[in-house]
Design goal:
63 residues; DUF6900; DUF6900 domain-containing protein
């Protein structure tokens, strides 16, 4: 079974696509609707999924 991507890697993928994430500084739950629910375009979601997939492939190939 493949190891999960680190929280730092996941944050970096999201921060590369979303200014709101960069400004927020993390992906932690804050129990505040205004901070926990962001408007995100579908193309940004697609790009983040693709980047996470590519990072996962790189991780597997390193082993």
């Amino acid at each position: 079974m493949a190891k999960k991507l680190s929280k730092n890697t996941i944050y970096n993928i999201a921060a590369n696509q979303l200014r709101d994430i960069r400004e927020r500084g993390d992906l932690e739950t804050r129990n505040n609707d205004a901070e926990d629910f962001l408007d995100v375009s579908v193309w940004s979601i697609k790009k983040m999924i693709e980047e996470a997939y590519e990072e996962g492939l790189k991780e597997v190939q390193r082993k």
